[in-house]
Design goal:
This protein has about 55 residues and is mainly alpha-helical. The chain has one domain. Helix content is about 35%, strand content about 10%. It contains one helix and two strands; from the N terminus they run ββα. Strands 1-2 form a two-stranded antiparallel sheet. A hairpin with a 2-residue loop joins β1 and β2. The protein is elongated, with a radius of gyration of 15 Å. This is Succinyl-diaminopimelate desuccinylase.
């Protein structure tokens, strides 16, 4: 995930910080509020894609 290529990353947590990699390392963590915000975004996106019921 550190390749010099255009990408889009979505989801809670940090890939890296000033100390190095965070994602998929022994320092990995995710804040509950970030998981909730990601879930809300996915829910709103799906609702808009599917339209009203």
């Amino acid at each position: 995930y550190f390749a010099p290529a255009p990408t889009v990353v979505f989801g809670p947590g940090d890939l890296a910080d000033d100390a190095g990699a965070v994602a998929h390392s022994e320092r990995e963590y995710v804040r509950v509020r970030e998981v909730e915000a990601a879930a809300e975004t996915v829910e709103r996106s799906i609702s808009r894609l599917l339209g009203p019921r």
